Amino acid sequence: MTNCKRLRPFFEDDGGFSTVGMVLALLVSVSLIIGATQVYKLRSVAADVQNVADVCALAAEKQVASFYIVAQVCDSAVLSLSMAGLTSIGLGIVAACIPPTQAISVKLVEAGERILEARTRFSNSCIEGLNKLQALLPIFAALDAAALAQSNAESSSNYYAIAVLAPFEGKDLVGPSYADEDELAGIEQQRDGIATAALEAEEAAQKASEHKLKAFMADCGSAPSYCMYERAATLAGLSGQANPHYGHVDSRSFSVALTRARAYYAQRLWQEAPATDSVEEQARSAIRMQLYDYAVEQMNAGYVYETADSFEAYFPLLPRNTEEMRQTRLYTDNVYPVTENEEGVLHMHAWPGCPAAAEETFSGFGSVALYEAEGLPSCEVCEFSAASVGRVASASTSIENGFEYHYRIVAHEAELYQQEYETLTQQSQKVKNPAENLLETIGRLLTDSLNYRIKVEPPGHVGAIAIVVDSGGVSAADLVPNSMVGGQAYLGTRVAFSAATLANDDASESDTVISSFLDGFLADTYVGAIPDAALDLWSSLLVMYSKGNRSLSELIESSLNSLPLVGASGLGTWASNKFQGVIEDMGFEPPDLVSHKPVLVNTYHVAKADQNAFTQGLLGAKQAFSNAYGGIAQDPLAALVGVAGGQVLTTYDSWDATFVVAHIELFGEEGPSIPLEISLPPALKDAGGGLVEQAISNLYVHSGQSVELRRWD
Fold first, then answer.
1. pLDDT tens profile 621-646
2. HSE-up of 140 (CA within 13 Å, CB side)?
3. Which residues, in sequence order, are CB contacts of 100 under 8 Å at separation 6+?
4. How many helices (H) and strands (E) does the chain have?
5. What is the phi/psi pair of residue 467, to 5°?
């Protein structure tokens, strides 16, 4: 049988491909792969111009973001200087209320005024510097974009770029008008008046404290030695609430002594009885009974009215001799029995139980005044007389072991304390009234300073648009050299648009810049002219710039705690509390420290938000390209580049490596200054304006060529 495979040598019947078919299939597949690779390469190279346009737009808008940081630093410095100056004056007013700190009070007030003057100068220079700086932002943006495009050029590409800010011009800043100079006029004289009154108030307070201490010692502070507390316990057996003991003068008031005296005399009246059966003791007991009854009445008429701002007291005094007895009702009360003997002679007795009274006819009751007026003879038994009545309180008043002796000390010291307290109150009002007005004025000015802010609307706050042209031609054969695909295609000039705008970011960058603003200055040799407290205050205010009212209150509290507020008058504590209350009532909210970072957006959004000739031309150009299905005689980009070039080109001579926005001069022109400066874009220093002119020229040449437009579906 004949073999079929030999009759058909080029065919196989087992389902496979022939050798020729396999070769053709492989050739077609390789050609498609190489062709696809070429298309990919062409598209990749064509897309590179868009990547460059994106980074150029971001670079341009980065200049605007940097300007915002500069403005925030200026704002923080101006605001913190206002607050440092005003709070320094406020601390000076508080310090004026305390004699030990009145020397630094003068320096704090002077430092506050100096800081406010420096603030005004700095604020004006900031406004001027920021206006100049924002006028340069368009050229900065254009230079950065042009330099970045040029740095991306390779052997097969030649990039030219221009970036235009939208809007192209910013809003001019106008400096604030500060009212603190007028509001605080003559503050030195007011401070001096406060200091003088505070000194007199402190002296009166110290004297009052001395009187209070003496009264305390006479009342209960000297225990267990003789004092009212000890005598009441020993003579009347009083204890507990009726006879309390206090271990410190500040825990006891004058009313304690008066209450103790009331309890003592009530107890003595209730307990009074003759110690023996002798006539002399019974007579003295009867007279003591009248004295204690009178004392209870008098003590109940006493009073102590004491508040945080006033003191008034009345400690009734018992008679300590016959003459003083004649000034009381003990002299006029008809309480002593009068008898008549057989001869018609009248006698007065100490009490009805006098043995001599029982032998005579009772005629009624009379007074010591009647006794002296009628010239009555003394009773030979009880020996009643005006002197005997006057002597009852004399002994316990004149010697240390008597209750009345210590009571009279308390009463005397209470009277002197009241006099000094009245002086203290009068002088305190001379301190509080002007100090309160000044502190409230400072609080109002601090609130006003929150409204005197540097708010900017620079060029580019809407966004930045970049136009990039790659004039470098690329041959398809160069991209994928291979004889299996055609190599006649040629990739010509490519154009790309891109836009960027600013998005909010966290405040870490600007916060760091602000908080480090004073680095190196506080160690300057000139700083001794301003108290450390004022400079520390400014430094701390910069750091707490973003933290709001709570941080400000804590800062003021810390500054106040550094002052020795303790004083007998209490004015230091009052002024400190008042100032803290003023700060708390301000309602200082944290300023907006949001950082800005450039992000890519569609050019339509930026162009639509701005009415500039360039942005409106861009919208027209995009529409023209969008509607073009065939060739167009003139590329609308040419006119667009012409408008952009006319806006960006700015005349300038030369540039330094840095741009100084403003200086802070706390000590005037002769002292040290803090420069607020920024580094200019490297492209500006290295290439200068020629780079922008070159980019615009090449953009115009290439965008002005006739082009054939095709939709790439």
1. 666 655 554 444 445 555 555 555 55
2. 26
3. 564, 567
4. 24, 15
5. -115, 125
